[in-house]
């Protein structure tokens, strides 16, 4: 236990030095909070178990598609791909609920949104793997993965709370703006907007 505590503290100090990585991951955490707020509202807006199942299916298919597609876009510089994918996800997310009265279109758009989210998830995990020193990869990866998911339960709680005070539809639209907000964050941040690295190249080594 003492050795694990020592390794964890050392891993934390290594992670703390990865300022560019942390700058990206803090944005991802915020995006995850907004996304989880929306997910909490899916049972509320669903008129039947089958409709809720369609939303979940769209999420699953979209995430899987994004995971498979991520390898095809890994050579695009981060300052282009990250905000483009996030903006795409946010727009598709919002449109999926604006068009809820249409047949199948909302689920297709929601699936496309989650395709982008799937790409972003793979990118976040890969950036951690590429940028942490090998000797601290295990403990650092565990620490940062925990950090990424740490505020997600708060998103579910806020989604439920705000949904009771307003409406599920409004919270779902708000959730979509979280992805658009991340895109804007990446575009205007002085360091991230100039980040021309490919996914497989660590920030330390540049392009």
UniProtKB/TrEMBL annotation:
It is a multi-pass membrane protein. Keywords: Cell membrane, Membrane, Transmembrane, Transmembrane helix. The chain crosses the membrane at residues 21-46, 52-69, 81-98, 104-124, 136-159, 165-188. Its main location: membrane. It is found in: Cell membrane. GO terms for cellular component: plasma membrane. The keyword Cell membrane applies. InterPro entries: MFS_trans_sf. The keyword S-adenosyl-L-methionine does not apply. This is MFS transporter.
